[in-house]
C-alpha cells in the first residue's frame, strides 16, 4: 500500500480528533508505553513528544511496539478493507486533482458502480463525500497554519468552485472558513 502524504502535525490532529477515516493508513506508536494504536483509538492521548507514526503494521511491530488492547489495530474488520484503504490512500494523495469515480475505480481495478457500493458498505460514505471530507480537513489545517486567503485555500485543496467549497465547509465544520480561522486565532490568545 502507498504511503499517504500527511505531515506529523496533520497525523497528530487526526489522533486528537479520533478520526476513523484514517484507520489502517497509519499507526500511532507511543515510545514510553511501547504500544501502537489506530488513529481513532479512544485511549488517553500521549504527549506529542512521545509519539511516532508508522504507515505499515509490520514496521511498527518490528520496531518493538505491541498492539493496543482497546482498539486492536492488528485485527482486520472486513475482507474488503485493503481495497478501501487503497482508495482512501489514493484520495488523500490526489485530493487536489479533479477526480471522478471512474478515475478512482480504474486505480483499484473495479467498476465504478461496484466500487461505490463496496466503499459505501465499508465506510457509510461515497468516495465523493469522503474526498470532500479530506479536502475540508486539509482546508482547516491550512486555515490554521498559513496566511492563505479562503479563495487560495479553496483551489489549493482541490475544489473547483468557491461556492461549493463554502457550502461543504459549512456543512462539515458548522461555520464558514473565515469564522473557523477567527475561532482558532481566538483560542490562541
TrEMBL record:
Gene Ontology BP, a term: DNA repair
Which cofactor(s) does the record list?
Zn(2+)
Q: Which InterPro entries match?
A: Ada-like_dom_sf (IPR035451), Ada_DNA_repair_Zn-bd (IPR004026), Homeodomain-like_sf (IPR009057), HTH_AraC (IPR018060), Me-P-triester_DNA_alkyl-Trfase (IPR016220)
Look up the domain of life of the source.
Answer: Bacteria
Organism placement in taxonomy: Bacteria, Bacillati, Bacillota, Bacilli, Bacillales
User: What PANTHER family does the annotation carry?
Assistant: ARAC-FAMILY TRANSCRIPTIONAL REGULATOR, HTH-TYPE TRANSCRIPTIONAL REGULATOR EXSA
Protein name, please? Helix-turn-helix domain-containing protein
Keywords (alphabetical) are: Activator, DNA-binding, Methyltransferase, Transcription, Transcription regulation, Transferase
Instruction: List, alphabetically, the Pfam families matched.
Output: Ada_Zn_binding (PF02805), HTH_18 (PF12833)
Where the record annotates domain HTH araC/xylS-type, the positions are: 85-183
Q: Which Gene3D superfamilies match?
A: DNA Methylphosphotriester Repair Domain, Homeodomain-like
State whether keyword Cell inner membrane applies: no
Q: Name one GO molecular function term.
A: sequence-specific DNA binding
Amino acid at each position: 500500500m502507498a504511503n499517504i502524504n500527511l505531515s506529523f502535525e496533520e497525523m497528530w490532529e487526526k489522533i486528537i480528533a479520533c478520526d476513523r477515516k484514517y484507520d489502517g493508513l497509519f499507526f500511532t506508536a507511543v515510545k514510553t508505553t511501547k504500544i501502537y494504536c489506530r488513529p481513532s483509538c479512544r485511549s488517553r492521548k500521549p504527549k506529542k513528544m512521545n509519539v511516532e507514526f508508522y504507515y505499515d503494521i509490520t514496521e511498527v511491530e518490528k520496531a518493538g511496539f505491541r498492539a493496543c488492547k482497546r482498539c486492536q489495530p492488528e485485527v482486520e474488520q472486513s475482507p474488503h478493507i485493503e481495497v478501501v484503504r487503497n482508495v482512501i490512500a489514493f484520495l488523500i494523495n490526489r485530493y487536489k486533482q479533479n477526480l471522478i469515480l471512474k478515475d478512482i475505480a480504474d486505480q483499484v481495478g473495479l467498476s465504478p458502480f461496484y466500487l461505490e457500493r463496496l466503499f459505501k458498505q465499508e465506510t457509510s460514505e461515497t468516495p465523493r463525500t469522503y474526498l470532500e471530507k479530506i479536502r475540508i480537513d486539509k482546508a482547516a489545517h491550512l486555515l490554521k497554519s498559513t496566511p492563505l486567503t479562503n479563495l487560495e485555500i479553496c483551489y489549493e485543496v482541490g475544489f473547483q468552485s468557491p461556492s461549493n467549497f463554502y457550502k461543504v465547509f459549512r456543512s462539515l465544520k458548522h461555520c464558514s472558513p473565515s469564522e473557523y480561522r477567527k475561532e482558532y486565532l481566538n483560542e490562541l490568545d
